[in-house]
Amino acid sequence: MRMGPNKTGKAGCGCLIFVVIVCMVLAAMLVHPFSLKVLTGRLVYQDKIVPSEALFVPRFPEDKTGELYQEAFREFWAGNGKVIYVEDDQVLGVSVKEIVTKMAKQRGIKEDFVKKVEINAEGEAQPAKVKERFAQLGVKKVILVVPEYASRRYHLLYGSDGTHDNVLFFVKPVTMSYFKREKWWATESARTAIERELYALGTFYFNRFKYGAKEDTEKR
After folding, report:
1. Strand runs labelled E in 15-80
2. C-alpha neighbours within 13 Å on the C-beta side of residue 93
3. 144: exposed, middle or buried (Cβ count in 10 Å: 0-12, 13-18, 19+)
4. Quick one: which of 136, 34, 18, 161 has its CA closest to 85?
């Protein structure tokens, strides 16, 4: 009779130890370089690029050397976009639009071909504002120039949602010099970019689940 409680206690401890071991194995797998590389691979999405009326470059503060804008210039010269739109912001008191215009002039692109989009919105409201703005301009096709690690999220954000679906967005992922997919965890800037990206993706899926659950409740 005295052995009953002891046997139960040992079994309980054994289950707990097993769970701890499984968690440790899973954690080790997640931080393994191969797993981390696979993780970043899942963040990448690319559309087939077709000639469009506009190129749109969202603001990414980590792009300090303007690599996204340089890619937009290349797409412009390739004939894939007639006008380059940039998300306007302020950098040391100077507007992003002004900076990009100077960069464009150095590459033979006239000032009239660089325009700004003032969004004044954050989170899920931002894509809706961008879609609305391009719809007002009568633009039907837009190429989104974004870092490759953010391409999956922008595909989700600018995909069909029932609003302004007459505007099609094509995601153009760009390989950034500060972000090495094979060893992104080795640099602080790349780690920070991934942290922000995973947080933004998590927020997107959470809001989709929350609003979806709300709609189901209203139907009932």
Report:
1. 52-57
2. 0
3. buried
4. 136
> How does DSSP classify residue 64?
T
The string of pLDDT tens digits covering residues 44-59 is 899 999 999 999 999 9
Residues in a beta bridge with 141: 168
Q: Which residues of 108-138 are buried (b: 16+ CB within 10 A; e: fewer)?
A: ebeeeebbbbebeeeeeeebbebbebbeebe
- pTM here is 0.75
Whether the CB-CB separation of 36 and 43 falls below 8 Å is answered with no
Domains and CATH numbers, the chain: 26-220 (3.40.50)
Q: How far apart are CA 178 and CA 184, in angstroms?
A: 9
**Which residues, in sequence order, are CB contacts of 166 under 8 Å at separation 6+?**
135, 140
Q: How far apart are the first and last CA of the chain?
A: 55
User: Rounded CA gap, 173 and 167, in Å?
Assistant: 19
